[in-house]
Amino acid sequence: MNNYQQKIVQYVNGCYRYHDAKDKEQEMEEVLNNLLDRYQDNIDNKNMTDVESYNDCIKHAQGLGKETIYSKEKLPIENILLNSSLILCISGLIMSFLHWLVAFFLLMTSIILYSTACSLLNSKARKSEEEGLPLQIRNEYYYRKFKYLKLCFVMWCIQIIPLLTDVTSKLIPLIILFFNKKALQIILVFFIVSADITIFVLSIIYSIKIYKRIKNTFEYETGLSFDEISAHEKNESHYRIRQQALKNQEKLIEKSLDKPQLKNKKKEERQLIKKTKFFKFTSIATNIFIVLPILVFSSLSLDSLEIYCKNPGNFESAIFLAAPLEISILFAIFSVASLIFYFISKCKWKFGFVSPIMIFGMMIPLLCKFYFKSTNEYEIVMLSSANNVAFIITNFILLFYIVTDAFTIANILDRKKQYELR
Amino acid sequence: MDYYKGHYQAMILALLNRDGDSYGYEMNAKISTLTDDAVSLTEATLYTTLKDLLANEMITCYYKIGNNNMNRKYYSITEKGKTFLKAYIEEGQKAYLNLKCVILGRKEI
Predict the structure, then answer these.
(1) Contact A75, A410 (CB under 8 A)
(2) For the segment A339-388, what is each residue's pLDDT rounded down to a tens digit?
């Protein structure tokens, strides 16, 4: 076998590297035999040189394995759900130090999204078992489930502490207000604090138990040790090895391509992959920039309204929480983030426009506040409440953002994968 | 415009019916020779077509050691394939005549 024939073998191997059909080997052998026949036939009967013959073979082999990539690789919905769950649980953890209600809402949404993703992954794993696909494919579904769980689970557990503290701190003043007898007050406070501690201890114990159970399930389902995989992941990631192997294969294929046109095509693909990597990073970064200011801002405004409702005379402290300087800084960050997001998701321009519109919506009451300094207490509180309404709406938009962004990331990753596979 | 796109299955069936059992490259080479290189199937198109024909039970396959001691996958036409080909040719002739009538603007006698 000469050099060009070896290159043909490499090319065919590369084309079929993602093929998961049962008769992969047979099909590869058949294609390879035919291509080698074509190569020899071109030289013997069509007076072609080695290079010409080789290029003709590659021309005829274009599109091999394409069927697998485009028909079987679908957009993984479970990945979108897992990503969304992770983003929400990180946001929830940060929010748990600011506002318990928002944090609780984020925590619940995160758990629901993760559970949905898990059930999807489980069904996919079972389906792959039924179809008789290699065990590695089934294990990968399980592995993905547990990979996200490790991070999410820790954050969910940590969130319990500030949530409980917040609830307790809100309950104790209420008890003091409603119950006049000091002895009763002490008993109730003692009861709540001890209940709090008990809930905390129990949740920690049950969290550990649930984690252990999940760990055992993973070991039972895959036959692999959870700890071994974690340790292995730290040193030499399974994915990293796979990626490295793919890169090496890609290099070999590239070397085997003598046609300058094809080389240029590969170069373009590499540039596209770089771009998608950049987009992935910026979209995650922007997401954090968008999500966090809104959450902080909305929690401050909710506190502001709460303070005024409890103590209508003390409107200054309520307004103080929505101080113009802090608001301006947050607006600036939000505006920049929105614009970046808009440029990133050009195809989803509608969502890109939502945040600037919301900014203007929120700015109006504040501008009014500056113009009408002589307004009375009632008007200022009304303006502040209008602000709050805007923030609450923004919170809903926030969820929209997270889901859209997760979709964008998933789309980009999918496209990137397709470029890598092509 | 790929004028021949819808006819690959019929081409393969016709070759197998006339010349007997054959393997992928041989069939492709014959198609190229007979059409003066006007029609040449890529490997991907050829195997998709062969797979479809196998799935529809119009052809069968078996392995045989060919030249250079290569393990070759040979294809042969089935009765179902022959019936399909016969009907396809008849329909094709009718379609060709109809098309000709429309293009020329008159009925053929």
Answers:
(1) yes
(2) 445 444 444 444 545 555 555 555 555 555 555 555 455 555 555 555 55
| A239: amino acid identity, one letter | Y
Q: Which of B78, B26, B36, B73 has the alpha carbon at shortest distance from A28?
A: B73
Angle at A315 between CA A312 and CA A317, to 5 degrees: 120
Rounded to whole angstroms, the Cα distance separating A65 from A82 reads: 29
Degrees (nearest 5) of the Cα angle A420, B1, A422? 5
Considering only CB atoms, which residues of chain A are within 8 Å of chain B?
26-27, 29-31, 33-35, 37-38, 41, 59-64, 66-67
Helix (H) or strand (E) holding B74: strand B71-77
Task: Note the pLDDT tens digit of each residue in A116-170.
Answer: 888 888 888 888 777 777 676 777 777 777 777 777 777 777 777 667 666 666 6
What 3-state DSSP class applies to A13?
Answer: helix
Contact B60, B16 (CB under 8 A): no
H/E stretch holding A235 reads helix A226-235
What ipTM was assigned to the predicted interfaces of this complex?
A: 0.82
Chain A positions in Cβ-Cβ contact with residue B70 (cut-off 8 Å): 33
Type of residue found at A192 = I
As a whole number of Å, the end-to-end CA separation of chain A is 27
A73: amino acid identity, one letter: E
Q: Which residue of A has its CA nearest to B25?
A: A34
Which residues, 6+ apart, have CB-to-CB distance to A364 below 8 Å? A386
3-state secondary structure of A89: helix
Q: Name the minimum distance, in Å, from the CA of B97 to any CA of chain A.
A: 34
CA A387 to chain centre: 30
Q: Side by side, which strands form the sheet with B71-77?
A: B22-23, B71-77, B59-65
As given in the structure block, the two tokens for residue A159 are 């969130």
Q: How far is CA A257 from its chain centroid?
A: 37
**What residue has token string 């005829």?**
A60
pTM of the model: 0.38
CA distance A90 to A384: 29
Residues of B in contact with A33 (CB under 8 A): 25, 70-72
Q: Which amino acid is at A327?
A: I
